[in-house]
Amino acid sequence: MTNILMVCLGNICRSPLAEGILKSKLSSDFHIDSAGTANYHAGSSPDKRSIAVARKYGLDISHLKGRQFKTSDFDLFDLIYVMDESNFRNVISLARNDEDRAKVKFILNEVYPNQNYDVPDPYYGGEDGFENVYKMLDEACDIIAKKTLT
Ligand code: 4NP
Where's the Phosphotyrosine protein phosphatase I domain (predicted)? Predict the structure, then answer.
């Protein structure tokens, strides 16, 4: 059983998309969740542009609600995928030991090993940014789902 947490800054654009995409590729036996390093959007629905791009590809993420990452997430999750370097630094700063630190991974390293590439923050851009993010996350989640099932 693998529990996987997706993390971005606000938990309204990138990580809810990653959560919805990975859930669509795995059975409901897996615990998949998302969180933000900031608390600005705690309790909020995903950004309407993330909801729209997910819907375009047949996924409904409209029911998800934002929450902030917390230290106890290290106890609940086996893998913590961050979207960018800033998320990485923020999550690592809350790690208590090497076991916690070993759980934190750049999501795009699944596609481009060891490169530490960012999933760009689409919040201040247009719809294109969300389409681009969706494609990056879909490719990464395909690999994560296959690894999780083997
Ligand atoms: P996310 O995008 O980290 O992908 O959810 C953002 C959402 C909100 C803000 C920044 C990034 N914000 O500054 O409110």
Answer: 2-147
Pocket test residue of 121, 124, 130 for ligand 1, highest count of atoms within 8 A of CB? 121
Closest atom of ligand 1 relative to the 14 alpha carbon: 4
Output the domain CATH number for residue 88.
3.40.50.2300
Residue 47 domain boundaries: 2-149
Model pTM?
0.98
**Known catalytic membership, residue 101:** no
pLDDT in tens, the chain (150 residues): 799 999 999 999 999 999 999 999 999 899 999 999 999 999 999 999 999 999 999 999 999 999 999 999 999 999 999 999 999 999 999 999 999 999 999 999 999 999 999 999 999 988 899 999 999 999 999 999 999 987
Gap between the Cα atoms of 13 and 122, Å rounded: 7
Domain count, the chain: 1
Is 14 designated active site?
yes
Instruction: Give the side-chain half-sphere CA count within 13 A for 12.
Output: 15
Sheet with 3-8: list strands edge to edge.
31-36, 3-8, 79-82, 104-106
